[in-house]
Amino acid sequence: MRSVEQFEVTGGARLRGEATVAGAKNSVLKVMAAALLGSGTTRLTNVPDIGDVPIMSEVLRGLGAQVSGHAPDIEITVPEEIGHETDYDHVRRIRGSVCVLGPLLARAGRAKVALPGGDAIGSRQLDLHVTGLERLGAVFDNAHGYLVAEAADLRGAQIWLDFPSVGATENIMMAAVLAKGTTTIDNAAREPEIVDLCEMLVGMGASIGGIGTSTLEIDGVDSLTPSEHEVVPDRIVAGTWAFAAAMTRGDIRVRGASHSTLEIVLDKLTQTGAEVTAYDDGFAVRCEDRPRAVDVVTLPYPGFPTDLQPMAIALNAIADGVAFVTENIFEGRFMFIDELARLAADVRTDGHHAIVRGRERLSGAPVRATDIRAGAALVLAGVVADGVTTVADAFHVDRGYQSFVETLQALGAQIRRVPDDVLL
Ligand code: UD1
Predict the structure, then answer these.
(1) Which of 142, 235, 268, 305 is the most buried (most CB within 10 A)?
(2) How far is the CA of 167 from the centre of ligand 1 (A)?
(3) pLDDT in tens, 276-285
(4) Where are the domains positioned within the chain?
(5) What is the CATH code of the structural domain delimited by 3-21+233-423?
(6) pTM for this model (two decimals)
């Protein structure tokens, strides 16, 4: 027997009140890795209190860094000489940890990085990371579950990405800042978390042009100096609360997030009939009636984020009408639909398309979180379902949402954590 936790949700609440958003998971892991690029002490603020941060801290400690403090403020002290080998047990748990590859090649000239784990949302290859770093002069080998690379001398190069991969852009960028000469990355990702990483690197003394565009031009420098950096707010968490308001016919004021990073998401919610108000420090979403169905297509930023696709399907499951949802980023992201179907949602899939026929209400049942975002979407579905829904494997959600249960309780949801004894 193994004792883990599950969420127990009793449906029916209309969520009202305030939710404050912490720093972004998808940014903090990368800026923590970027600290490896300069010897000395980096200070990070607005660090979210989520499960992935202590795991990333262990990855950095394994490379010789000291990590102290606690969210929202941590310090990372990096020695002149750093290690080059990451621990398999930690890296396999979070995909974000693969972003140490670029910094290790730049600082140590070699890297042995366990092939990462993370969410089970389909094949998440590393070919774009590898091809880009090879262009800069790295030589790769793949053995026994590890990616092994050496780079005696990194040199700037012209790199075209086949797809604007977030992780590949970050790794290439973090190697290029210390390479000799100029690197151009075309078709680069331009997510707000990439902009945040660029700003951290510039604060350390890097020279990066085209920040926030799909062409990044990086002039390598000899060394970088640690700095202080505030992590950008988590737009996916903010978007989750926006969906929560629209789904539950509620009224939620989201603080600490920028509505400009969620324009397409908030526009979709307006199309469902919700009223969206922008403020300097966030936004509010209010919905009086049953939401109307809305079509969604996921795309790289500034398109609709794949991380909010499960919330879009959950909303459409109780909306008035039929919606067409297309997933273009991760093929495995529809896996959670089998779980949603246990709550009586009417969703059919064909490849990367889903047709969702809205029902007046869902029906509470035991389900299982398959990844961070699917877990959050299943909990929201539980809030609009009749009776009790249990969402097993709560740890997935805790990897990316700070004070998830407490926030929902403050908004009026009936939710608690309960032990779940699993037979091994
Ligand atoms: C990051 C985010 C994740 C988000 C995703 C897309 C982190 C820790 N995770 O993941 O939450 O959903 O961006 O916004 O920041 N691909 C390749 N080869 C590669 C790299 C990627 O084929 O070398 C493919 C992937 O399999 C996937 C697509 O490209 O189908 C997008 O991946 P990518 O943008 O790299 O996402 P991640 O950085 O893994």
Answers:
(1) 235
(2) 6
(3) 999 999 999 9
(4) 3-21+233-423, 25-230
(5) 3.65.10.10
(6) 0.96
